[in-house]
């Protein structure tokens, strides 16, 4: 287990000690990773979780291995248990579910929106493309992008928490100016409920595809911002640990 040099509050330390018991394995990542804490929940066979420090709260992200919306019931049960631990230790946490796009799963969340709102659950969509035909060459998702964005922004409006759209740039595949314009056209009507996070595809994920240059990423972000979208880069140290939910072929 790597060690984080500093855990800022005693309450957070107590949470880690309690989580490091029967049901959860904890891996503390190096300090230069901004204090990310990787959690693997053995119970319910859930995906790894990543906690990202944001001011005085923690963000628990269901991402990086497996599709959480295909087992929403197990995810829901786990959130309840984690929140009980946080409450006992005086730590506020937010949750995020990262999906490649499962319409039935988002519909479940909409039907369960009171619970999702009470437990501060944000939805994240690993989109990466604005065209369904191109996207399905790389990502095994049956539901259309427009359907997922529509359901996702409806959920975002209901919970007052923006839908985060992840877009990983691949050199010569989805990173051109025309791709940026297509993304703006797709999202503009729902722009008040959307935040676009732009990264570069992880070259360490075993793919023969190449990441776009940092210069290309900056230009892509500028184009989205000029087009009226709220947009920001993903810190690349985080992207290396929490590799995109989509498996690029």
What does this protein structure show overall?
The chain has 249 residues and is an alpha/beta fold. The chain folds into 2 domains: 99 residues, no CATH class; 135 residues, TIM Barrel. Helix content is 38%, strand content 21%. The chain has 9 helices and 9 strands. It has a 9-stranded mixed beta sheet with strand order 1-2-3-4-5-6-7-8-9. The protein is globular and about 50 Å long. The relative contact order is 0.12. The N terminus and C terminus are likely disordered.
- Please indicate the count of domains: 2
Task: Give the H and E element order.
Answer: HEEEEHEHHEHHEHEHEH
Strand order in the largest sheet:
1-2-3-4-5-6-7-8-9
CATH class group of the largest domain: Alpha Beta
The CATH superfamily of the largest domain is known as Aldolase class I
Which descriptor suits the 3D outline? globular
What structural class do helix, strand and pairing data support?
alpha/beta
Number of helices: 9
Given as residue ranges, the uncertain stretches (5+ residues, pLDDT < 50) are 1-8, 21-56, 237-249
Q: What is the residue-mean pLDDT, rounded to a whole number? A: 77
Would you count the extended β strands for me? 9
